[in-house]
Amino acid sequence: MIAGLSRLRDRLGSRVDATTAYRFGARDLVLHHPADDLDALPRGGLVTTVPGAAAVHLHVLSPVDVDSLSFPDRALMGPYGAIVDSANTPWLVLRSPDTGRMLALDTINRVALYFPGARVPPRDRAEFCRPLLHWLAILDGHVVIHGGGVALDGRGLLVAGAGNAGKSTLTRLCLEAGFQLLGDNVVEVSLGGAPVIYPVYPTFKIRRSLIAPIPTGWPSPEWDDEAEKDIYFLGGGPSTISPGPVTHVATLILDPEASPDIVPMSRQRAFFLIAPNTVAQFPFYEETVLKRAGAVLGNAPSFLAGRMPLESITERIAGLLDVRAVSVSDR
Amino acid sequence: MLGETRLVVNRPSVIFDVQGEEAVIIDLASGHYYRLDAAGTALWARFDAGSSIEDLLASCTNPDELRARIDGIVDDLVQRSLLREESGAAAAPEGTWIFGGFMLEHFTDLEDVLGLDPIHEVDPAQGWPHAQGA
Fold first, then answer.
1. Which of A129, A153, B19, B116 makes the best surface tag, with the fewest CB within 10 Å?
2. CA angle at residue A28 from A145 to A115, to 5 degrees?
3. Considering the entire predicted model, what is its pTM?
4. Is residue A84 within 8 Å of A58, Cβ to Cβ?
5. Looking at the predicted structure, is the pLDDT value of residue A237 above 60?
6. Sign (positive/negative) of CA torsion A296, A229, A235, A21?
7. How many other C-beta atoms can be found within 10 angstroms of the C-beta atom of residue A180?
8. A27: part of which helix (H) or strand (E)?
9. How far is A286 from chain B (nearest CA, A)?
10. Contacts of B105 in chain A (CB under 8 A)
């Protein structure tokens, strides 16, 4: 399998495909694809860019390319179809049992191979090659957190919490009030130095409800049966999406059972609420992810809140983004 | 009960990290995760350092309290596959410590997304691989 992937990587490196470059968290991603096939790719609403020299290259495979690969007869598989033994090689490999989708990253040369396989549902298109984002974040000393985020004037709030905790409602209301979107479901966060949150996917997955209105100007959504959510592909409009990384100023964890007041939270409690779910998103590097999720909480103070009155949410969040001087010690 | 055998964290399927004084432990094989209180985390750290039961008792400032509970704690952790027995010289950590109890909370809500699937074999009819039950 590994030798086949390397041969295919070399062969594709000399094939002349069309290329399109996108911002992909903290880096640029150059997509190599058949010239007439871009619209068929499940690339979501990634924001196009002019790639830098350190860009990661991703080759979109054809069925013929995939046929040239062989896979082991027996394999221990992790979540998302991770072929566990590939972690002992320069390659990381996923292969979806049901769809034939395949994603492989040469961790040394930072070249990825991707075969979308069968129809890619909206929820997956909304987060193009998310495992690749996770792997690259780890290789770059960062971590991808399972949570959303909003920004104001270059200051970013990481928002985490269990499903149905109100993350999307909070984010929607903030966007209506002029905040910028960092992410709805995942964001990339740097560690150490000046901590930074990177926006990645300009998409939004929302359960249908009338708690908070859809902001004006959003495109029509696509319905995802399995997730039972509307998926909004927001594009890269700078009025909605943060145009670049912002300073990680605070982390807010939402818990429907908690008081509606925003209160400081110990790092250990925040860690328990944020870390297992983040690790669960991640094939490979799990222990590194666990430790980096803890380190993210050292970037900025953490806060807890329950269901806040809708009319006061944006004012409270704006106040939270001005908390640089607040110190929260571990209890 | 375990003689000279030492107890070690069951890596690589078990991962953990300590924030503040509490540990979060994740068993990637089962998909279960655990929260360990501060006192339990002090004991867990001794296991992580390669202590044997004898080491734990010798370095503990209240060994009678530890002796009364250690077999049950170890049996539970081994049964959950969080610790495993290993022979060989133990690298006992230096210094004394106080046994303050042990509270392990168990969570299964992420089982489906954390756990490993068993080894898959090629299905001649369906190709490779197919997840269990797919």
1. A153
2. 80
3. 0.87
4. no
5. no
6. positive
7. 22
8. strand A27-33
9. 8
10. none
